[in-house]
C-alpha cells in the first residue's frame, strides 16, 4: 500500500485551530488504520451516505425542523429508521443514542435498578456501569473476573463465584429485606479484546429468576447480531438470548459516526422509563449528522451488510493466519482455552519473542510504516479489522510485520552471539524476564479464581457524595476506598469505591508497584504512596 503524499493544511488552520490542524495532518496521507471507528475514515461507509455528505456537507447539520422529527419523542422519519433497525436486529424497539453507549448504559441502569434493587455485575464491566449506579443508588454485587495470567487480559466473569452467590442465598436474603424478588444482572459481551460471553449460561441462570432484569453491554458488539448465516440475531449477541436491554456502540464495529450507539429494548414495560432515562442522559439538541449515520448503518445492513460483515471477518482470519506464519509473533486467540470464543475481527498480537513490547511495536508501525493500531499495551498490540479495510491494507501490514521480524529477529540473534555485550545483555534480559514472571505471579494471585463476590459497604452514590481524604497506602487497612484501585494490566479494579481496603489488597498492591507495574487510583509523593479514602 503506497502512502499518499501529505499536503500542508491551510495556513489559517495551522495558526488558529490546533485541533483542526492535528486532524488535517493525520488525514493528509493515506494511513493503515486498524482501529475504530468502523467506517474506516469513510471507506466502509454506506456509499449513498458518503455521496450525500460530499454533496451537502455542513448543510446537513440541521435542527428539529418540520419534517425532520424529534429524537426525544420520535414519531416521523427518526421513528421509521429506529423501527427498521429493530426489525433487522430482531429487537422489539430501538432507541438511537448520540451520547454513546455510556448514555445508554446509564439510562438503562436508571430504568432497571434502584437503591432497593441489587445489581450483579462482573469486575471487568465498563466504568459507565459504575457511573450509572451513582445515578440509580443501587449497591452492586461485584463478581470476580477470570484473568489470562500470561497476557494479563480478562476472560470473563467467574461463573463459580456467581453460582456461589446465588446458591448461598445472599440474593434471596437481600430480596427479602427489600420485600421483593428483584435484581439486575449486567453482562459484558464481548470484551474489548473480543472474548464472547457465555450467554447460554447467563440465560439459563436468569431463567430461574423471573423477577430479575438483564442488561447487556455490547458496546463492542454492534456487528454480532448479524454474524450468523440465518436471518435474525446470531447466538453471539445477547439479543438472540432475549436480554431485556442491549446497548451497542454503532461506531466501534459498525459504520456509525463516533459517539453513536443503539439501545435495544425487548421489554415493553421498560420502554417508557428507558425513554425518560435516555432524555435525561443525552443532549436535547442531538446532531442530525450523528443520527444520519445511524440511519446509514441500518440502510447498510439492509443492502448486503451481512455479507460485508462476513467478508470482514474472513479477511481478519486470513490476516491472522499470515501473521502467525511469519514467526516471531504470538496471537492471543491461539492461546485461549478451548471453551472460549473470540471475535475474529479483533487480533491481539505479541512481539515479545522479537524483544519488542507492545508500545515499541506500535511505535515502529506508526512512525516507519504509517500504520495505526487500536491499542498498544505493555505486552501486546490490538488490531481491529473493520468494514473499510481492503486486502491491500492487510498486505501492507503483513509486509511491515515481516520486515520488523527480519530486522529484530536478526538483531536478537546477533546480540546473543556477540561476546562483548553478552554478559551485560544476558543479565539485563534475565532481570526483565524475572520481573515479568513476578508480575504474572502477582497478577494470578490478585485475580485468582475461587474468590467470593464483593459487595461494597456503601453504594457508589453514597461514596460520591461523601467527604474524602488522602492517607498512606499502608495506613489504609479497613478504610473505605473513595476511588477504584486499578492495576494495569489488566485494567480491572482490585478495589471498588465503597469497599473496605483489606490488608491482603494493600500487600498485593505494594508488591505490584515494587515489580515496576502501575495502578490507577494511587498517588505518589516522593517515596510515599497515597490512596483516597472516605473521611472518618
Mean pLDDT: 89
SS strand fraction: 15-25%
Question: Count of DSSP E strands?
Answer: 20
Largest sheet: 7 strands, mixed
Strand order of the largest sheet: 2-10-9-8-7-3-4
Please describe what this structure looks like.
With 536 residues, this protein is α/β, with parallel strands linked by helices. The chain is 42% helix and 16% strand. The chain contains 17 helices and 20 strands. The strands form six sheets. Strands 2-10-9-8-7-3-4 form a seven-stranded mixed beta sheet, with helices on both faces. The protein has a four-stranded antiparallel beta sheet with strand order 11-12-15-14. α4 runs parallel beside α11. The longest helix has 39 residues. The protein is globular and about 65 Å long. About 3% of the residues have low confidence.
Tell me briefly what this model is.
With 536 residues, the chain is α/β, with parallel strands linked by helices. It has helices spanning 11-16, 18-27, 47-56, 77-89, 100-112, 127-136, 159-167, 170-178, 199-207, 271-281, 288-326, 332-335, 358-369, 391-417, 419-446, 460-464, 503-514, and strands at 32-34, 93-97, 119-122, 140-143, 145-148, 153-157, 183-188, 212-217, 245-249, 261-265, 330-331, 346-350, 371-373, 375-376, 381-384, 468-472, 486-488, 518-520, 522-525, 528-534. It is globular.
SSE order and pairing:
Blueprint: H1 11-16, H2 18-27, E1 32-34, H3 47-56, H4 77-89, E2 93-97, H5 100-112, E3 119-122, H6 127-136, E4 140-143, E5 145-148, E6 153-157, H7 159-167, H8 170-178, E7 183-188, H9 199-207, E8 212-217, E9 245-249, E10 261-265, H10 271-281, H11 288-326, E11 330-331, H12 332-335, E12 346-350, H13 358-369, E13 371-373, E14 375-376, E15 381-384, H14 391-417, H15 419-446, H16 460-464, E16 468-472, E17 486-488, H17 503-514, E18 518-520, E19 522-525, E20 528-534
Parallel strand pairs: 1-13, 3-4, 3-7, 7-8, 8-9
Antiparallel strand pairs: 2-10, 5-6, 9-10, 11-12, 12-15, 14-15, 16-20, 17-18, 19-20
Helix pairs in contact: 4-11, 5-6, 5-10, 11-14, 15-17
Amino acid at each position: 500500500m503506497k502512502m499518499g503524499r501529505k499536503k500542508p493544511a491551510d495556513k489559517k488552520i495551522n495558526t488558529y485551530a490546533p485541533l483542526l490542524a492535528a486532524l488535517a495532518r493525520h488525514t493528509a496521507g493515506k494511513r493503515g488504520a486498524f482501529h475504530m471507528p468502523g467506517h474506516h475514515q469513510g471507506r466502509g461507509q454506506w456509499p449513498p451516505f458518503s455521496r450525500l455528505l460530499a454533496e451537502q456537507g455542513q448543510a446537513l447539520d440541521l435542527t428539529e425542523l418540520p419534517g425532520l422529527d424529534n429524537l426525544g419523542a420520535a414519531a416521523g422519519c427518526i421513528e421509521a429508521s429506529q423501527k427498521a433497525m429493530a426489525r433487522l436486529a430482531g429487537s422489539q424497539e430501538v432507541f438511537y443514542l448520540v451520547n454513546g453507549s455510556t448514555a445508554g448504559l446509564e439510562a438503562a441502569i436508571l430504568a432497571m435498578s434502584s437503591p432497593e434493587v441489587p445489581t450483579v455485575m462482573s469486575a471487568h464491566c465498563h466504568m459507565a456501569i459504575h457511573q450509572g449506579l451513582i445515578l440509580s443508588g443501587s449497591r452492586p454485587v461485584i463478581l470476580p473476573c477470570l484473568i489470562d495470567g500470561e497476557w494479563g487480559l480478562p476472560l470473563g466473569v467467574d461463573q463459580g463465584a456467581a453460582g456461589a452467590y446465588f446458591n448461598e442465598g445472599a440474593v434471596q436474603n437481600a430480596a427479602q429485606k427489600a420485600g421483593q424478588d428483584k435484581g439486575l444482572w449486567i453482562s459484558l459481551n464481548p470484551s474489548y479484546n473480543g472474548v464472547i460471553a457465555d450467554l447460554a449460561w447467563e440465560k439459563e441462570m436468569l431463567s430461574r429468576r423471573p423477577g430479575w432484569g438483564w442488561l447487556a453491554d455490547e458496546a463492542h458488539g454492534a456487528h454480532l447480531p448479524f454474524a450468523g448465516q440465518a436471518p435474525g440475531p446470531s447466538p453471539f449477541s445477547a439479543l438472540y438470548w432475549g436480554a431485556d436491554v442491549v446497548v451497542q456502540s454503532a461506531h466501534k464495529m459498525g459504520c456509525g459516526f463516533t459517539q453513536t450507539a443503539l439501545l435495544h429494548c425487548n421489554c415493553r414495560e421498560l420502554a417508557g422509563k428507558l425513554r425518560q432515562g435516555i432524555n435525561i442522559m443525552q443532549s436535547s439538541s442531538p446532531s442530525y449528522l450523528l443520527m444520519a449515520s445511524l440511519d446509514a448503518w441500518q440502510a447498510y445492513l439492509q443492502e448486503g451488510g451481512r455479507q460485508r460483515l462476513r467478508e470482514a471477518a474472513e479477511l481478519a482470519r486470513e490476516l491472522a493466519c499470515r501473521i502467525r506464519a511469519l514467526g516471531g509473533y504470538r496471537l492471543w486467540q491461539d492461546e485461549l482455552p478451548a471453551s472460549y470464543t473470540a471475535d475474529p475481527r479483533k487480533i491481539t498480537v505479541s512481539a515479545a519473542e522479537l524483544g519488542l513490547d507492545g508500545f515499541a511495536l506500535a511505535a515502529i508501525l506508526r512512525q516507519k510504516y504509517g500504520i495505526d493500531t487500536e491499542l498498544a499495551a505493555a505486552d501486546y498490540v490490538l488490531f481491529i479489522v473493520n468494514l473499510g479495510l481492503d486486502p491491500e491494507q492487510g498486505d501492507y501490514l503483513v509486509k511491515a510485520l515481516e520486515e520488523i521480524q527480519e530486522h529484530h529477529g536478526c538483531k536478537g540473534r546477533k546480540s546473543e552471539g556477540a561476546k562483548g555485550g553478552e554478559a551485560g545483555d544476558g543479565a539485563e534480559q534475565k532481570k526483565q524476564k524475572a520481573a515479568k514472571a513476578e508480575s504474572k505471579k502477582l497478577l494470578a494471585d490478585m485475580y485468582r479464581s475461587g474468590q467470593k463476590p464483593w459487595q461494597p459497604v456503601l453504594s457508589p452514590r453514597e461514596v460520591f457524595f461523601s467527604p474524602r481524604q488522602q492517607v498512606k497506602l499502608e495506613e489504609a487497612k479497613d478504610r473505605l476506598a473513595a476511588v477504584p484501585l486499578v492495576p494495569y494490566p489488566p485494567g480491572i479494579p482490585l478495589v471498588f469505591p465503597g469497599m473496605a481496603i483489606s490488608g491482603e489488597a494493600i500487600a498485593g498492591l505494594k508488591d505490584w508497584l515494587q515489580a515496576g507495574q502501575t495502578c490507577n487510583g494511587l498517588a505518589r509523593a516522593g517515596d510515599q504512596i497515597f490512596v483516597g479514602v472516605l473521611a472518618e
